[in-house]
Amino acid sequence: MTAGPGQSAGPGQSAGPGPAPPALAAEHLCRRFRGLTAVADVSLRVAPGARFGIIGPNGAGKTTLFNLLSGELRPTSGSVALFGRDITALRPYRRVALGLGRTFQITRIFSDLTVLENLTLALHGLSRTKLSLLRPWRSYRGMTAEAAELAASFGLAQRLAASASDLSHGEVRELEVLLALALKPKVLLLDEPAAGLSPAERVDIRTLLTSLPAELTLIMIEHDIDVLRGVVDSVAVLHLGALVVQGSMRDIQNDERVRELYLGSAHSGPPGISPPPGSGPAPEPSQAPEPSQAPEPSQAAGLSQAADTSQAPKTGQAPGASSPGASPPPGPASPGAGDGP
Questions:
Q1: Please, what's the largest Cα pairwise distance for the chain?
Q2: Which CATH code of 3.30.70.2390, 3.40.50.700, 3.40.50.300, 3.60.20.10 fits the domain covering 22-111+184-271+293-305?
Q3: Tens-place pLDDT, residues 310-320
């Protein structure tokens, strides 16, 4: 997603200011780990206030890309800019000070502290006295009030006194988003905020994400297509570290390259629909996709929303039933262990 082009000035009119720089821009980013290229020449431009999603099979390089954007890793080549300022060489804490926030796949909270104490410490990180912690709790009174207001805005007001270790997994995910918001970011990177959540908890996290301030630029990695569909405006698809396609959710669901990426080139029908009975034998085990490249079940299921009714089974035939003598369809691929180095 890019910022719109500026309008040219007409005769007798003074040229106005140029187009605003993108909130976050990556130019030809590459990251290699010896012989492995985890991110290969990826360029993205995300406009201020946009809601942007990144999807792809496990091992596609999504989290490595986030690590490059947030400063956890240095790129082998390429650059990163935040609102037009080059931040490629800046450490993560410097990027946070400039307005770049982030959450992680693995939850990072203080489990021995209460929700209120977690949020207060996050707010304290913005103060000039952030390294002065040995002082009475009452001196944080102003920050505790702001922390309580933040929690109330996103549905955790009743859990302020609860220990973080007593929260449900969904509430922990919500707390982690609030900890990132406490740092008052202008751009927020969310790495799989709905991972491991129950269906009800996914509704809660989606509600939280849709209620974020409109001026906040949101970039999120997510395997749950239903969560993405309700939050983002545009999506980029990564595979083997490279950018495959970028567009609206509808465009991504109908893109042939995405169908081949998730279901294989032999399957020409809409995603989520099994091949017709007798269309051919199942692939040998050696031809099955590697676990590290297998898509999450929720992604393949979510992409099935683009299927048309012409692929429905014939009347009287059970869904997924095969004709006599046909080989059984391959079983679901095992989920991968992570998203690259």
A1: 78
A2: 3.40.50.300
A3: 444 444 444 44
